[in-house]
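Design job #97: recover the sequence.
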């Protein structure tokens, strides 16, 4: 949430900051701003709206500001509504220092009161402005360096932050620090330094990066280079890593939207998530990242799966997989509820935390809680080097590549793929699966990328169906067994990008309430491939039909029974029941995409949302 970018070096800062903000806009897009330092003067431009509005405003005011040091920000509002004043950067009273911030300063109220008493005047409603005033106050009263003022101030704040501070009295330095919100420093050639809230704006300039740890402060000096300290004033050794991220992965590659590109990438991202792990020819599954912990799984009396949103839906599929294949009881928890519930956690519990971004604040806090009770924590994350993989004991990356569209698509199928591999690996080690089923599933899983390609070929038909239902106010999504989480995910996709109210339910639960909603206006999306619950779901379809609901069914190729009842059917290739979510979710992703485009919605940046939820 909120994008941070900073630059100090030998080049003009403004073009670097603007292109960085464009790359970061998926993190938050309600306002944007930049500040550039030149000849001891700071020029700040900020406004409500997208990065393009900021660029237009700057162009209208006389063009690119000059200077080789600067900071930029794209905001997702927490304290105070999106407007020009609340946009970052925020400045000290005398305008000598400016700061950008991601996170929440929880004790900002008491700090603001205290600083007001000392004569500070605040222009905005933000917690960020309080922090820069605090730094300024310390700097002036204690007569210390900018680094020291930042360090002392950060010892006084409670909450999460990633900040970059620029001071006109120290024009060769930027000070960057983080706790709970990510921050990465890119080290270019010729003393060029790039700072950002994730690596996406950095990769086009350098591959060498340092991910800051909590409570670390980077002093980035155009002459003296990069020095790492912590808030206890101890010097730290920076660990420089090489980014694996490729620039093409951050481009739309000819697609109209990132979301569509990412939907189409799924044959590839599923394959990449299985690469080196699934050996159908050798009859083997192995996840190197959890090899040392496999006996913990084997002996676990319980698995707890934690996640939020789409990752929580993947976790539900994981519950079916682990119980079905590995015969281990599973609880799937919203991380946000788990962390505040005083949950019972045993030392022999294995906790699987699922997160695309690896930065979700609630998931991170839930992990820390479970870890403090002695449980083993396993991560399934997509962003390499992000906070969650660093907080877990072990884990397996999903290798879906960067997901830029705010609505999660390829991350979901990659998460389900890794959960499937994990459940198979554990089941094999535990001896809870027969040889023949194990081998059959390996062969089926191996064939999934090809079958996803086949589902994607249905795009035109799905677009046609989307056109029929693009104006409905409500929709129901029903599924059973492995496809119940898919129904939830289908409903979430529709509501978040097209703003149509949608609910997902286990199909049999319909009779206990939602059936009252059904009339001739209500589209009901049934996820009804062949499998254990097929006959039951056919009965549920009949119940909707009898009440004149519109039926759109996802069925297995060649199926006739549902076809005779449904208004529309979308056929998908057959596979084992436990792998079905990898296929059934694809038409629902495409359907939501087309409905949203037809309704004129901003598919990649839906209102009120941000890609990585780093606040509670
Ligand atoms: C929905 C979506 C969100 C995320 C959720 C968790 O399309 O993207 O529901 O799934 O915010 O995010 P991660 O997986 O990054 O922890």
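Job complete. Output follows.
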């Amino acid at each position: 949430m909120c994008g941070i970018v900073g630059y100090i070096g030998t080049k003009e800062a403004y073009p670097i900051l603007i292109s960085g903000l464009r790359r970061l806009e998926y993190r938050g897009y309600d306002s944007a701003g930049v500040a550039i330092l030149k000849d001891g003067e700071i020029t700040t431009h900020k406004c409500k709206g997208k990065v393009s509005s900021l660029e237009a405003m700057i162009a209208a005011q006389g063009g690119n500001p000059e200077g080789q040091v600067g900071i930029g920000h794209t905001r997702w509002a927490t304290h105070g509504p999106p407007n020009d004043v609340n946009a970052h950067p925020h400045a000290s009273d005398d305008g000598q220092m400016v700061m950008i911030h991601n996170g929440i300063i929880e004790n900002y109220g008491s700090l603001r009161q205290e600083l007001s008493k000392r004569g500070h005047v605040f222009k905005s409603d933000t917690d960020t402005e309080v922090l820069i005033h605090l730094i300024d106050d310390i700097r002036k009263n204690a007569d210390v360096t900018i680094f020291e003022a930042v360090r002392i101030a950060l010892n006084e704040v409670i909450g999460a932050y990633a900040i970059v501070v620029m001071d006109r009295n120290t024009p060769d330095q930027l000070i960057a620090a983080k706790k709970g919100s990510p921050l990465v420093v890119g080290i270019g050639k010729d003393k060029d330094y790039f700072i950002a809230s994730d690596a996406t704006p950095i990769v086009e300039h350098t591959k060498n990066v340092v991910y800051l740890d909590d409570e670390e402060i980077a002093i980035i000096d155009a002459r003296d280079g990069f020095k790492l300290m912590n808030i206890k004033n101890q010097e730290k050794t920076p660990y420089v890593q090489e980014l694996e991220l490729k620039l093409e992965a951050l481009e739309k590659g000819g697609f109209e939207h990132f979301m569509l590109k990412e939907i189409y990438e799924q044959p590839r991202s599923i394959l990449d998530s299985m690469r080196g792990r699934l050996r159908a020819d050798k009859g083997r599954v192995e996840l190197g990242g959890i090899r040392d912990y496999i006996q913990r799984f084997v002996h676990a009396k319980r698995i707890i799966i934690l996640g939020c949103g789409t990752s929580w839906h993947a976790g539900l599929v994981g519950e079916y997989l682990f119980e079905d294949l590995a015969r281990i009881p599973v609880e799937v928890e919203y991380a946000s509820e788990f962390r505040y519930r005083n949950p019972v956690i045993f030392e022999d519990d294995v906790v699987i935390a699922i997160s695309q971004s690896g930065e979700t604040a609630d998931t991170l806090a839930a992990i820390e809680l479970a870890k403090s009770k002695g449980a083993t924590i396993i991560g399934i994350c997509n962003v390499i080097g992000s906070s969650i993989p660093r907080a877990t004991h072990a884990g397996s990356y999903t290798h879906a590549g960067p997901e830029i569209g705010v609505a999660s698509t390829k991350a979901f199928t990659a998460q389900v793929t890794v959960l499937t591999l994990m459940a198979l690996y554990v089941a094999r080690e535990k001896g809870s699966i027969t040889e023949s089923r194990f081998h059959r599933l390996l062969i089926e899983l191996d064939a999934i990328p090809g079958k996803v390609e086949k589902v994607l070929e249905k795009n035109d038909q799905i677009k046609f169906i989307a056109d029929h239902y693009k104006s409905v106010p409500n929709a129901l999504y029903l599924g059973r067994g492995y496809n119940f989480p898919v129904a939830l995910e289908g409903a979430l996709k529709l509501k978040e990008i097209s703003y149509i109210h949608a609910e997902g339910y286990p199909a049999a639960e319909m009779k206990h309430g939602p059936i009252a909603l059904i009339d001739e206006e209500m589209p009901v999306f049934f996820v009804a491939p062949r499998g254990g619950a097929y006959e039951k779901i056919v009965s549920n379809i009949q119940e909707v039909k009898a009440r004149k609901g519109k039926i759109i069914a996802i069925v297995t190729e060649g199926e006739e029974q549902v076809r005779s009842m449904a208004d529309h059917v979308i056929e998908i290739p057959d596979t084992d029941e436990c792998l079905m979510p990898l296929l059934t979710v694809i038409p629902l992703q495409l359907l939501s995409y087309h409905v949203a485009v037809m309704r004129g919605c901003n598919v990649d940046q839906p209102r009120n949302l941000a890609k990585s939820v780093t606040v509670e």
